[in-house]
Design a protein that fits this description.
Layout (H helix, E strand, L loop, with lengths): L3 E4 L2 E2 L2 E2 L1 H11 L5 E6 L4 H15 L3 E5 L2 H14 L3 E5 L1 E5 L2 E8 L4 E7 L4 E5 L16 E3 L27 E5 L10 H9 L4 E5 L1 H5 L20 E5 L5 H7 L4 E6 L12 E4 L2 H15 L2
Parallel strand pairs: 1-4, 1-5, 4-11, 5-10, 6-10, 12-13, 12-14, 14-15, 15-16
Antiparallel strand pairs: 2-3, 7-8, 8-9
Helix pairs in contact: 2-3, 4-7
Length: about 290
C-alpha cells in the first residue's frame, strides 16, 4: 500500500480532537502517513489544495473526518481526483492493494463492507470510533497554503460557547425530544450534562430543532449529526428512524420515556419507563455524587 494522506481539522489554530482519530485511522491502512491541515476554511480552495497534494504525493488513500467540514471537503476532493468517496466509515482495513471500508446502512441496522475502487481511495471516518493511539498527539501536520477562497467564502464561524462540547465529539450525550414539553425544560438535561464534569454535551431530536427549541448544531439524526459516544441518553425521545440513524452506533444507550412502547426501547441497552421530570433530577444527583 502506498502512502496515506490524513486531512486534519483545526479551530483557532488548535487541532480538533477528531484530527487525532483521523491520524489513527490512517495508520490502519498504511505505515507511511502524512498529515495536512488547510490554512483557510474556504471549502473550494481547500479542496483544490488537498487534491493537488494528493496527486503530487502519489497517495493511495486520503482520510477525512466525517464532520460537517469533512463531509463538505471529501466529496469535493474525490470529484477533483475522479474517484468515489466512502463516507461515515466505522472500520478501515487494507487487503492487498485494496481498501476495505465498513459503514452503517439502513439507519444503522446493518453494516456494509465495500472495496473502495480507484486511486487514491477517499474515505471519511465517523467521529468517536477510532480511539487515538499514542502517536496521535504528536502529529505536526503540514499547513497547505490557499491562494484564493474561490466562489464560496466563509464570512463567519460561530463556535459553541466556552465550556460547551460539540455533540459530534462528546463522549457522553444527553439528548432530549418533545417529551420535555417546552424549551425551558432543557435545563433539566443541561444540569445532567454539567454533572458529568465537562464530558457531556446536550443534543436534540429533529422535532425539537424544527420547533425552534434548540439550534440545528445540537440535532442528532439523519439530517443532523451522526454520533458514536460512549454513553447516549435519549430522554423524552420516541425513537423515530431518522433519529436512530444518527445515534445507533453509540456504545451504551439509555432511554427514558413514559411510553413503554416507544421504539427507542428496541435499541436501548437500558430503558426506564417513567416521568423524566422525576427520574432525571434523581439521576443528576447520583452522577454528581460519583464525580465528587
Amino acid at each position: 500500500m502506498s502512502g496515506v494522506l490524513a486531512v486534519l481539522e483545526q479551530r483557532d489554530g488548535v487541532l480538533r480532537k477528531v484530527s487525532f482519530e483521523v491520524a489513527t485511522a490512517a495508520r490502519r491502512v498504511g505505515t507511511k502517513v502524512d498529515a495536512v491541515v488547510c490554512s483557510s476554511p474556504g471549502p473550494e480552495a481547500c479542496a483544490t489544495a488537498i487534491a493537488e497534494r494528493a496527486k503530487s504525493g502519489g497517495y493511495g488513500v486520503v482520510v477525512f473526518a466525517a464532520t460537517a467540514t469533512g463531509k463538505d471537503l471529501a466529496p469535493r476532493v474525490a470529484a477533483k481526483l475522479g474517484v468515489a468517496v466512502a463516507s461515515d466509515v466505522t472500520d478501515l482495513a487494507a487487503e492487498g492493494d485494496a481498501i476495505v471500508a465498513t459503514r452503517p446502512v439502513y439507519a444503522g441496522k446493518a453494516l456494509q463492507k465495500i472495496r473502495v475502487l480507484g486511486k487514491p481511495a477517499v474515505v471519511s471516518v465517523r467521529p468517536n470510533i477510532f480511539t487515538p493511539d499514542a502517536r496521535a498527539s504528536q502529529e505536526k501536520p503540514e499547513t497547505l497554503s490557499v491562494a484564493s477562497p474561490g466562489r464560496v467564502v466563509v464570512r463567519e464561524i460561530k463556535a459553541a460557547p466556552a465550556g460547551m462540547l460539540d455533540v459530534a465529539e462528546a463522549q457522553v450525550i444527553i439528548s432530549g425530544g418533545r417529551g420535555l414539553k417546552e424549551p425551558a425544560n432543557f435545563k433539566v438535561l443541561e444540569d445532567l450534562a454539567k454533572a458529568f464534569g465537562g464530558r457531556a454535551a446536550v443534543g436534540a431530536s429533529r422535532a425539537v430543532v424544527d420547533a425552534g427549541w434548540r439550534p440545528h448544531a445540537d440535532q442528532v439524526g439523519q439530517t443532523g449529526k451522526t454520533v458514536s459516544p460512549s454513553l447516549y441518553f435519549a430522554i423524552g425521545i420516541s425513537g423515530a428512524i431518522q433519529h436512530l440513524a444518527g445515534m445507533r452506533t453509540s456504545k451504551v444507550i439509555v432511554a427514558i420515556n413514559k411510553d413503554k412502547d416507544a421504539p427507542i426501547f428496541k435499541v436501548a441497552d437500558y430503558g426506564v419507563v417513567g416521568d423524566l421530570f422525576e427520574i432525571v433530577p434523581k439521576l443528576t444527583d447520583e452522577i454528581r455524587k460519583l464525580h465528587g
